[in-house]
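Section 5.1 Outputs to date
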Amino acid sequence: VALLLFATSNAATFTAQVDLSNITNPEVSKWIFGMNMYQDYGLNNEYTGNYTLGRLGGNSQTRFNFTTNSANSGNDYYFINNPSDFTWQQFYQQANGNGLAFWTEIPAMGWVSSSATKGWSFSQQKYGQQKSDECTNQPDGTTWCAKDAGNGVWVNGSNVVGNDPTDCSIRTSPSQATAFVQAVRKLYPNTSPIFSVDNEPTLWSGTHRDVHPIGSTYDEIVNATLIYGKAIKDGCNNDCLVAGYSPWGWCGYFEDGFDHDAG
């Protein structure tokens, strides 16, 4: 049971109870009760929820290469390529074992991780000294971090520009989206009902500025949705649902990346 408290201007408080004990009621779509980043449970943590849908998505999923199970962290963490700790196969295996169906985000920005070998987009040796790097906040002598992996901001505070997007990324295409969908459906044809077209595209020029430095327009977003939406449908033989992009928030529906960057 979930408790919701509502406060009004005269300080009166109302309590509503929402019963979640029967979330498979046929009168309610079972796809309503979902969980983002389900993979954070990991392989060794017990699942204790009662959700019916788990989403494989987020910023790094925009750069996810399903053939190598690797992604680029983007601006969230020094634009670094790393192999996924939790492969998509393991994600689906665990979710399926816990009775969840899957919502899969399909990359549509055009760039994904090039390799499961650790690499980074803004090398200080190549592009000059930057304000911080992966080792900045680590104790002296830390060996696992890469001091060459800069944050993409020069010491004067301006963003690094003119970098080579192929330093650790490769182009992707609708055909690869189709192949990803086919791979998922081959393993779990009955529990992979929904695929979505990427994540927060109006923020690509910030989150993924190493490969997409120009703010996305709504024309670009619509075109990607149509092209990759068809690719998804081809991959599931028109037997799945396609969701549009996930915006960063409500304002993402009213201002594209290009206009936002222009101020």
